[in-house]
Amino acid sequence: MSGSRELNDRMRALPSVDRVMGLLSDLSPRVAAAVARRALEDARARVAAGEEAPGAEEVAAAARALVESDHLAALIPVINATGVLIHTNLGRVPLGREQLDAVTAVTRGYSNLEYDVVEGRRGTRYAHARSLITQLTGAEDALVVNNCAAAVLLVLATLCAGREVLISRGELIEIGGEFRIPDVMAASGARLVEVGTTNRTHLADFEKAITPDTAAFLKVHPSNYRVVGFTASVPGRDLARLARARGITFVHDLGSGLLGETPWGHTEEPLVPLALAEGADLVTFSGDKLLGGPQAGIVAGAAAPIAKLAKSPLLRALRVDKMTLAALQATLALYRDGRTESIPLWDMAATPAEELERRARTIARAVEERPADAAPGVKVEALPSRAVAGGGSLPGADFGSWAVGVRHPERSPQDVAARLRRGRLPVIGRIEDGVLLLDLRAVPERHDAQIVEALIGSLT
Ligand SMILES: *Cc1c(COP(=O)(O)O)cnc(C)c1O
What we know:
The chain is 42% helix and 19% strand. The chain is an alpha/beta fold. α6 runs parallel beside α14 (322-336), α7 crosses α8 (181-188) and α16 (353-368) packs parallel to α18.
């Protein structure tokens, strides 16, 4: 009895919603009321668990923290200072002005998404990007879906369900934890038949494994790793010849999908036109890896299998949105016009290292010259760094880059990194050899001032 009276007294000591809201007058009344109530609910739970009632200031501070954590939990822009250009967790690749203008132009009003304006009747959303893709790749036909995983799924489910698909053991890849070839295969209803060994697979292995039930050969680009040492894989050209002779479909999943040589000279990545010229019936690739466009999956290749894909009931579930199509079309037009420098990914990759060094020095100097109340012993300096393409592209290759290196006398690099992540505009860096690095290769110059501000905030 006395216990519950004591609890009642402590509950009564809690501030009212109005009192807490009074301390949040800089917020809009709706937001202030909502977070004040949530913070008071938390406080009530803690009092019920035996704690003393917090004062109004403390509850108001907790309410303010809720506003911040709500902001950070929403989809917001961040600064990618990891040095990974194609960063799946950070939205893969940024889009440039022309790509975004195309999205705005098509989506501000209505569009001919599924309407044939010449004939004045229903059309198809799959027609728009088709001609650009076929021009740029040499394919007979093409189809765009939601992402490359969807493209592979559509191909397997439509052309191979209930039948066998032969794949080299060295290519049973997992990408980003979710896309695993055996799982996609199982979901499609096709039967996976592993051929060869992890490090060596020969054409004869494929030949021996063919049965009347074999629907396709699937060649998968081992995007995010390299098999080195005593290795052998079957060239696409040989697989294509065997597939053709035996009436089997040859599907080459490229993942990254480069249309031509890169400005940065790594040429190990298979080019889409080359894979098609080798004789693949279908190739699949992503819109938002080395292509530098929106999330999308592209199937390009022979007209007959693509016509089957276009009739698949699955297509409706994997279909691509008009915003994506608009951005993809604009991206492809930049390739057609030889203007890849307008694609942010290509621009970032091509930035001379000296320019990044100059920016890193300017940022470091601005932070070093911060006001005197700053913690002493903080060291901020320009350091040479290595950036990578990421997104499972160009494995093993890296680019010379520059970073702002940060050392704090009392705070661990993890602590400083966490403070940078929790700002209004989160800055995501990486820690290397105990030093926090903010690599500038994937940071547009317009963000440099914000990096200075964020660094000063996280160090003082
Ligand atoms: C990345 C990748 C995929 C998946 O592409 P998403 O566009 O992320 O769905 C499939 N296959 C390969 C070889 C890849 O590299």
